[in-house]
Amino acid sequence: MSKLNLHDALSAIDVQADWVGLREVKESTTYRIIRDGNPQANSRGVDHGVMVEVLADGQFGYYGCNNLDHDSIQNAAEKALRQAKASAKNPLFEFTTEARPVTKGSFQSPFQQSVNELSAGRLNEIMLKAYNQLKVNDQIVSAHAMAMIIETESNFVSSNGSDIQQNFLMIQSDYSAMAHKDDIYQRRTDNHCLQIGMEEFDEDLVLARAQRVGEQALELLDAEDCPTETTNLVLASDQMMLQIHESVGHALEVDRILGDERNYAGWSFVREADFGKLQYGSKIMNITFDPTVANQFACYGYDDGGLKAERDFIIKDGLLVKGLGGKESQLRSGVPGVANFRASSWNRAPIDRMANLNLEPGESTFDEIIAAVDHGVYMETNRSWSIDDYRNKFQFGCEYGKLIENGKLTKTIKNPNYRAISNPFWNSLKMLGNQDTFEVYGTPYCGKGEPNQAIRVGHASPVCLFENVEVFGGV
Amino acid sequence: MEKLFNQLSETLLNNLNTGEHLKITIGGENSQFVRFSRSKVRQSGLVDDASLSIVLIKDERTCSGSFTLTGNISTDEATAMEELNRLRTEVGTLPKDPFVVMPEDTGSSREEHNGSLLNEEEAVSALSPAMQGVDLAGIWASGRIFTGNANSAGQKHWFATDTFSLDYSLITPDERMVKGTFAGSHWDQSEYENNMAKSIAKLRMMEKPGKKIKPGAYRTYIAPAGVADIVGMFSWGGVGEASIQQGDSSLCKMRQNGIKMSPCFTLSEDFTSGIVPRFNSNGELAPEKLDLILAGSLKNTLVSTRTAKEYGVQSNFAGEGESLRSPVLSPGDLNEDEVVQKIDTGIYLSNLHYLNWSDRPGGRITGMTRYACFWVENGEVVAPIENMRFDDSIYNFFGDNLEAVTDKAHLHPAVETYDGREMGGVSCPGILLKSFELTL
Lengths: 475, 440
Description:
heterodimer, A: PmbA/TldD fold, seven-stranded mixed sheet, B: 440 residues, PmbA/TldD fold
């Protein structure tokens, strides 16, 4: 990663503290974008630094440091110590080293083709071909093909013996087409966020995705608006990603339930006493925290507090059983949690985040779900999202919809939106798709925390049927 | 950091080969962050961060790279030259970019705003006493922010400012909230304590029994903090010229169909306050003031030089993303002190939350009411209301339904910190609406 030997740097630190940790992160982010037939970006950013954390008088003080020489790290540790001591004058909670478990291990993202196996020039060629596929005809007024490649090395050592190395390779591919006719504008997109190699940019796969996006954007120009009614709603996996994220994931972050987030993203309708008692959804709802799903965007071996990450049920048979709380939140609340104490980079302290948070598949085929609906609406791909600060009242919009009539998908509809309240909505979950409908998605832009942190999360879900949902169209 | 930036720029520019052009940008901060929850310290720390970005242009091709600066000149020079050489290897393999923006020298600038900030070890002791006795959640951010730009045509800019902000929420035992922000560049303990005392007094108003209102259309006042959130939406599929050209703007209707908003609505990009730099990542200086929507009519959009080249229009030296950097919504003639009487019967919204376009071409925005929001009856505040979802179009609430704009604009400092502490803020008054659509 760098010339810095993290163990030597840790050994060289001389401060009177109960615990010291060093987390070095080096991350390279590369964008290759073709928009409207021309290169829009060929950029690479490298972010590199070390987070120095010190525990003293029951408080963690930190210093995110961009200079990696020993003198600078010593200075950072001294200043972090003074931050901890200043915090001890008005502390929220008294921590001990129990908040930083001793762990050793490593993690490596799975991939078939390394970054070096696909040159910048060749990736530009593929993105240009994708653009040409997106632009089905002149009614596509703008389109882009984007590749984002993130390579991250994260090393963590601590004075109580933790030693963790994790290497990640993460890819976002995004294809988008805007269609226009008269006063109608309709965008269609296809976005993947995965831990995967350059095989994500296999030309045939890329062109097939781009072709579908361009064609469906045009299809929407002649579609009717989504009807306004209360009806059955079938959501595709790429919309369930957002549904899980906003109305399950954020609501179950334990630091949020404890009130840390009240000045920014908000609180939660879930309270500490609800764990083990709240019927979050219908009996077929099973939510797992799962850092082990192959290629999912937020796989990792260990969180940034050093806790080993393992698959666990958060909601079992609709009942809330565990929170999304790392070791600090577990100590503060007594609520059972998971290894989700994560920082966006070296310059931020960890907080409770989602990682891979998935809805487990059921038994029904896609056709069986549609056949079970006399009248309803099917929606794909999020385009608008908003939810209240308690994670109750939400309104989400999608790019593409179909009417369901007499158990069959019929007309394409545009501007499909729906709104509901989280707990009754999840309790109206009627049918779950099987493994064949289970798809893996993610996003690099989950925002939370003060100071703000954007972090990567993954969500996988089958197709789902909800009853009695308010749906509506555009202006 | 300015000295380091100058040295690195000189090294890079002195090492350019014939036919190579370079644009160099620095950005960074030296910050303290203290997070409070329940009026106590949740997390506290310091961050030193800076990065240098270089854009290489050669033979109508371009690519860019950035890296974290260490502050050590020899280390950073070596990394900068390594990055330049990497870009040299890559640039020839890329397609030509017909809209590449070449560096120019249109004048240099230097601004440094030195503040008087709290010592980082005294912040907790200075901030904590005034918030005792109430439940406060919030973030203290303080320190220096800097940005600079240089290019191979000889232009150079530097801007640095010392600022602080305490952005906070006060919460009653039954979970009603009041929002507050105390920000500036020269710390004054008594001003801070006054700010906090006023917010605590507002919180007492939230202790009245609440009122649940039904979805529907209501006569509504939105206070400046809520209006600032709506103005922020104009940066995202709004006033950017590229977003209009690409069919992705809520203002396409104004451009293509001549739709107008209310004559009471005037939005401009106005740098006269001097709290944010006028130069963009190309080093181009934006006009000091640019009317965007004047008395309801779309007069200008934000146009970057790249967009100007692509669509054959005139640049006004907007940033690359064509978002608002220093937005000002003009005040009107409604006396701010008479707002509650003018509502008569309806709702008073102090803040909004989590806005998003629910139909961008239609200009429709959804979001939530948040914090101190009240039911008003016969010109008097009656009760706090439960938070409600709204879903309404800018062409309604900035159009025919905009009855009046208050006579005072307030600056709402930018407090977001995703890619480092933001500069500037939104200056805007409050708005009184004949009708506003609440949906859930």
